[in-house]
Amino acid sequence: MARSFSQTMSALRRERGLSQRAAAADLRISQALLSHYENGAREPGLDFLCRACEYYGVTADYLLGRTDTDAAAGTGTAKLRELVEELRALTARGEKALEEL
């Protein structure tokens, strides 16, 4: 059974343990718009599709449900995801340090 774009977007975010708020901020869209994409109420433009592919480290075919194979894995995007997670952790520690001041 083929997956839809909305199902794939939601699954990728959840697999990474991200809230809609965090993913939307990283993708430079509102949380409401991400919610619309994830529930199928709206379809994205090409610019967003490209950003989402880079962000999640997947191909457009995978994100659009045209293939079950995440061919982008192993092309350096795994390292990018690791760096994004590291940056997120550093930001959280920085915010905590600022609160303590």
Helix content: 55-70%
CATH class membership = Mainly Alpha
What class do helices, strands and sheet pairing give?
Answer: mainly alpha
Unreliable runs: none
Give the DSSP E fraction (strand runs of 2 or more residues): under 5%
**N-to-C series of helices and strands:** HHHHHH
Radius of gyration: 15 Å
How far is it from the N-terminal to the C-terminal residue, by CA? 53 Å
Q: Based on the structure given, which CATH architecture is correct?
A: Orthogonal Bundle
How is the main sheet built? none
- Number-wise, the strands total 0
Outline type: globular
Q: How many structural domains in the coordinates?
A: 1
Number of helices: 6
The CATH homologous superfamily corresponds to lambda repressor-like DNA-binding domains
Average pLDDT number: 86
